[in-house]
Amino acid sequence: MRTLPQWYRDERQKLKGYGPKARLRYIWQYYRLWIIGIGLVLAFITYAVWNYVTVPGDIHFYGIFSNTYAQLGKGSDFYNGFVEAAGYDLRTGVVEIDCANYCKPSGRVIGNNYYEKLISMLDGGVDDVWVAQAEDVIAVGEAGRLLDLNSDAAAPIREKYADRFVYCTPQDEEYSDQPVPIAIDLSGTVLTGEYSAYPEGAVLGINAGTKRLDQAAVFLDYLFARKG
After folding, report:
1. What is the pLDDT of residues 202-220, one digit of tens each?
2. Of 93, 95, 143, whose CA–CA distance to 118 is shortest?
3. Closest to 205 in 3D by CA, of 180, 175, 176
4. Tell me, what's the pLDDT at 88?
5. Superfamily of domain 59-225
6. CA angle, 137 as apex, 169 and 79 as ends, to 5°?
7. What's the pLDDT tens digit per position in 86-97?
């Protein structure tokens, strides 16, 4: 039989003399952060599962916009204009523009559930593009999670937007010890102008694991066609 951890045995011994209410107060006082953290993780998993089983068909496009309070998601003029311009049929798949993400990867991210969601989306190849301030996108790009725009797959994007490339030096020196392009400067688009989503500027990185690179290119074209 496996021996119970010493800390568990000690805590159980402490609680022997407590009544039910006193036990709950003790557990909440000393373990509430763990309880809240586990609850948030379970809530996210529940949401992810619910979202997976209820969304119609495939994903046409998925974008994450961090640290903006602009209303660019479903039902907005920005969203509707993109769906129309791209010719998506929402009866056969979804277009998601998620503006409810608040984290600073260039700063402290320990315990930030928005950051954990962002990284899980990138690592899982779920989202196609990520829009945020340059320093944050660079911090994530250094870890290799964003597409190297010098790659063969990104050639059509490079032909149009090479003069707007944002660079970072990868942490993996075996990949490159020189700066590589991992994002595109969005200055002069509707995101920095008309919608004031990022009045101080923003860049767009493409998920290194996306299977919809062509749709990321469509989204870029939409942004630059509607210059702000």
Report:
1. 999 999 999 999 999 999 9
2. 143
3. 180
4. 96
5. Periplasmic binding protein-like II (3.40.190.10)
6. 145
7. 999 998 999 999
